[in-house]
Amino acid sequence: MGVIGSKPAPTRADRTDSKVNYKDKPNVAELGTNTSGIELSKSIIDFNLGERPCPLRTPVIDNFTITNTNPTRIHFQLDPSHPKEFQLTFSPSSGTIERGKTRTIKVKLVVTSKINVNHKATVLIDGAPHVLTARIRCETGVFGVDPSGIETEMDAGFQVPSILAMMKRSLLVHDGLRSEGIFRLAGEQTEIRRIKETMNRKEFTDSNDLNTIANLIKIWFRELPTPILNALPQESIFYSSEVSDCVAAFENLPEPQKSLLSWLMDLLIQVASHSTVNKMTIQNLAIVVAPNLYDVSTSNPMEGLVMSQKCVQFFHNVLLWKIQRDGLGGGAPAAPNGTITVSAPSADHPSVTSHAAPPPS
Known about the structure:
The protein is an alpha+beta fold. The chain has helices spanning 12-15, 162-173, 189-200, 210-222, 234-238, 243-251, 257-272, 275-278, 282-289, 301-326, and strands spanning 38-40, 44-45, 60-68, 74-78, 86-91, 94-97, 102-111, 116-125, 128-137, 152-155, 158-161, 341-343, 351-353.
């Protein structure tokens, strides 16, 4: 990938600061540059299942390699993951790799209950974290599937999966757009699983549990085989400081991604129009929704942090453009020189802290 932009690459000190100035345009080529002397052959483990659902209580195996390009020996360690839905183990789970050598790591997954998740496992190499994503897809139905293969309908002028239209209707009928913290507050996990199962069985009709429904809309987008914004080149997300650049990238989205994103933006703009009541401005909504639209598939935690921030800024800029183009109200404007702080990703989800707002360009 060639060098894009004229500003010098950020220093190592710059990269350790979790606050990114969106007006700055560091070199996107640096994101793909390995300065640690460590090479992981994969950043995503899918157990060679492709789009097939993962079997329950049956081990599936994958592997990856760690190559040491340092001049000295390195030590690695991987801790097993044992949440109640699955067990993820590594063999060997620790050891040393001499300079110039490669070690193969076997990854074993046993799933005990249906779940769709991108689980983030940490590989510690000489104490420095590297992230490995285990892509686990067990549910069948309307979540975690190609949207072109499920029932769709016209809603707000866009052809979208019927399940999205049904969830939106539940929010509208029960005055969810005015509910304080909508799309930010988490629903109760047991209820989320229960309603999700009814949706996958095509038995869902309505729910007045507003936070659960809003969370399931985010989950639907997050569990897509290819998240919406991953259809764009990385540079389009990285260089997100200019609204015009973001809009041009949005206009080039293929279908059905463009219609799906447009539908979602329309819904969020409706929510933000009630921000004096629900406390959810456009920037707040961009912060809590954007991480569900882009899968940061990298073993480098800082690269993931930067791309998560850039994704929020990209989505925020496109939302601002749409509000201005359509003459809509989208809540309070963003602070003119604000920044967003994105915290390090959790085991399964990236997180973004909204103590300051992203700036419009």
